[in-house]
Amino acid sequence: MPRAAAAGNAPRATGATVSNRQHSRRAATAASPAPEGQLILQRPHNQPASTVRDPRKNVEINVGKACNNRCVFCLDGLPKREDRSYMPWPKMQAELERWYAEGYRSVGFLGGEPTTYPKICDSVAYARELGFTRVAIATNATKLRLEHFTDRLLAAGLTRATISMHGHTAALEDRLTRVPGNFEKKCRAIRYLVHKRQTEGALPDGLSINIVLNGWNYRHLPRMMRFFYEELCVDDIRVNFIRPEGYADRNPDLTPQYHKVVPWLVKAIVLAETHFQRVFTFGGFPMCVLPKSLRNNAALLSRYMGEYRDLSTACSIRPDGGHFVPAGATLEPETWAGTEASSVVFMDETEQRVRFNWQDRKQLDLKGKPRACASCDLVQVCEGVWKPYLEIWGDGRFRPVRVRAPAPMSEP
Ligand code: SF4
């Protein structure tokens, strides 16, 4: 699939959240394992049932695809010339007004890299003026090292920042983002934001590090946690399993198999639970690859599995190349969605925006169901597996999860 998939790049995102303090208190009292069978099976709408999710409806607005990094797993790949243009200001104002009128009170700005958008501070300020109570940005933070710029963004009313950073050393981070010197710039930005949080209460909805877990960094996860929590004093880390599209399209080197990553994820959860006691969440793992002790523990799942915590999220993006398809029409090859038809994407021809719900899009378009899902008791609550992962590694390792033991056979 070409850059398409852009439609899915939306939530990298500004999403997960219960406040850090709330989470830390919970983490401090380790949950006792629930008995076998105590799984969370309800999926009332398109997300697993959860008592910890922020109830605010969230929209992520893509401001344009231009970026000052070149991450090896970027879903946008190499933007075409027309994709580098930014969202015109009147259109941004109209989008914010539209979503606010629909009851959304949380908004996130995405790119590309939203800090390169000339109207980003105006967008944040306008969102607050309209009444959005949670205004977030998903950023690589390179530009946030400029204190005068960060000050403007905070003064405009930004309440949350999620920073894409994927390594705990200059060698790893600069290799993954392909910008020499990036590590130092990001560290400087994070230290400044942490300082502003500690001294002025900035970013009341949190400052999170978003790590794309991939073949080059997953073995470093415990070291990354130590670096971000203890050296940079961040209190919220989110790891998302790589989605192998864009630059990383079907790349097996960057896309590790789940069974190799899960032991490191489990180690990270144990460290979060027993040592760091800060917010730590993960996303993009199907339930069957998780150990039973985690999968069967409702308290642990609610605390650590992002899908139980992420806000219900709508997305607003520009279609690739400006090729529009009427709602309900069959998508043609070379449109933004490639050759894959979608049942959940709405094409707004008047406003020239593509809109969809992120949870629907993941489950119904972007993720596939291995053959094992047909007899799995979790099929309703589990999102499945990124389709390109299945193309690389196949579905032979997935096993159905059985929640209830089969009833004993009665005597004939
Ligand atoms: S629904 Fe499929 S992917 Fe999800 S846990 Fe069951 S077998 Fe695994």
Present the secondary structure layout:
Elements: H1 6-9, H2 20-28, E1 58-62, H3 89-101, E2 106-110, H4 120-130, E3 134-139, H5 147-156, E4 160-164, H6 170-177, H7 182-200, E5 207-213, H8 221-231, E6 236-241, H9 258-276, E7 279-283, H10 292-295, H11 298-304, E8 313-317, E9 346-348, E10 353-357, H12 358-366, E11 367-368, E12 385-386, H13 387-393
The chain binds iron/sulfur cluster.
Overview of this structure, please?
By secondary structure, the protein is an alpha/beta fold. The protein has one domain (49-318, 369-410): TIM Barrel. It has 13 helices and 12 strands. It has helices at residues 6-9, 20-28, 89-101, 120-130, 147-156, 170-177, 182-200, 221-231, 258-276, 292-295, 298-304, 358-366, 387-393; strands spanning 58-62, 106-110, 134-139, 160-164, 207-213, 236-241, 279-283, 313-317, 346-348, 353-357, 367-368, 385-386. A 10-stranded mixed sheet has the order 7-6-5-4-3-2-1-8-10-9. A two-stranded antiparallel ribbon has the order 11-12. The longest helix is centred in the middle third of the chain and has 19 residues, at 182-200. The model is unreliable at 1-11, 16-37, 321-325 and 330-339 (pLDDT under 50). Bound molecules: iron/sulfur cluster. Residues 286-288, 369-370, 372-373, 376, 378-379, 382, 384-385, 398, 400-401 line the site of iron/sulfur cluster (SF4).
